[in-house]
Amino acid sequence: MVNIPNVKDAEPIPEKALADISRLMNNGDLFRYNSEGSPAEKLEVEFARTMGTRYALAVSSCSAALFLALKSLDLPNGARVLMPAFTFAAVPSSVVHANFIPVLCECGDDYRIDLNDFSEKIKKADAVLISHMRGHTSDMDVIISECKQAKIPLIEDAAHSLGTTWHGNKIGTLGDAGCFSFQSYKMLNAGEGGIFVTDNAELFAKAVIMSGAYEHNWMKHQGEHASFKKWQNKLPLYNMRINNLSAAIIRAQLPELNKRIEKGRHNHDFTAERLNRSPWICVPEKLRPETRAPDSIQFNLIDMNSGEIDLFEKITSLSGLNIQIFGRTKNNARAFWNWKFLPETFELPKTRKMLMTACDVRLPPKLSQDECRNISDVILSAIMTIKKGVAA
Ligand SMILES: Cc1ncc(COP(=O)(O)O)c(C=O)c1O
Question: Given phi > 0 = left and psi -120 to 50 = alpha, else beta, which region is 109?
């Protein structure tokens, strides 16, 4: 049996985090506003510099960042937020949490937004939230241009896109605000955490205050004093702050980001090339302006009936590789029909069809080429077994 790594493993946390962590353990200074120049403050300056944005606000999760970004837009309750149907349940949840209505848009076999459905549905939308699910970038040229034409704001959920670029510009910086995740299965891992970036001083001031910068704690943030003063005491405090320990853990990983991006892309492209040799597998091509930063791979099973797909799941699992087929695992949080909390329901046959054959395997950057080869061998050999009709 080939050696299959535990693909749920994260990258190790660099040892240099230890100095900051032990200092925080000694002085118990975990609250971001307790002292000047906290790890949370430093992380925000460093992350904004990395992304080339004016401002960054570190918070407790990407979901919190999305919620704050949406709340900062000044939309009325019940506003309609257009978003792709292929995403994680936390994304429409952030829209519901903000008292808005998620409007789901079809996604195609390449996991990206169906632009015909988008163009139709944007006519009645008040904002657009693009979730670049699993780091697949939809056609941002069309999306940005249609948002501008409709004069509605655009938020990016870049939870899986840290390091991805579109025409050389960083994903997460293309709209009014971008949100990233520091949950364990992401490029930078603090267990939990997130960050919001923007160039817009007003949006930023509102998000900072609502994140829990009570009284004059906004002074410990980047941003414009006039904007903070304007919103002081006018907004609720949702208390979604990051703590210093998480910030210190992320700061130590920032210098490794480029290496992780390169390695993640190499692992993905190496595995994709091997999988695409099979006529029963399709790893969709990236779009031309996109340079990806993947830490997972998605592929579609082609011309396989339900029994064959069951067998595929069984054989790969027996070989030590658990493959998630989004639409087939019970209660999957990425299958839109399981989001029973939505105020409106949607018939989305294209997305449903894609989810029924789209497979998901994590490929963390730390995997070696041999480990990626073993993963692809398990997949290819399962398919060969099934298609030869000699399944064990
Ligand atoms: C596409 C996507 N967006 C947003 C989130 C939310 O991230 P967080 O867990 O940091 O709230 C997730 C979670 O994995 C996700 O998959």
Answer: alpha
CATH of residue 177's domain is 3.40.640.10
**Which of 67, 181, 334 is the best mutation target for the ligand 1 pocket, counting ligand atoms within 8 Å of the beta carbon and taking the most?**
181
**DSSP character string of 361-376:** EE--TT--HHHHHHHH
The total of structural domains in the chain comes to 2
Q: Of the residues 57, 60, 63, which should be mutated to test ligand 1's pocket, given the most ligand atoms within 8 Å of the CB?
A: 63
Q: Is the CB–ligand 1 distance for residue 157 below 6 Å?
A: yes
Using the atom order of ligand 1, give the atom closest to the CA of residue 65.
Answer: 11
Q: Which of 256, 291, 321 is the last residue of a domain?
A: 256
Per-residue pLDDT reduced to its tens digit, 117-169: 999 999 999 999 999 999 999 999 999 999 999 999 999 999 999 999 999 99
- For helices 306-318 and 369-388, give the axis angle rounded to 10 degrees: 140
Gap between the Cα atoms of 135 and 293, Å rounded: 7
Q: Model's pTM, two decimal places? A: 0.97
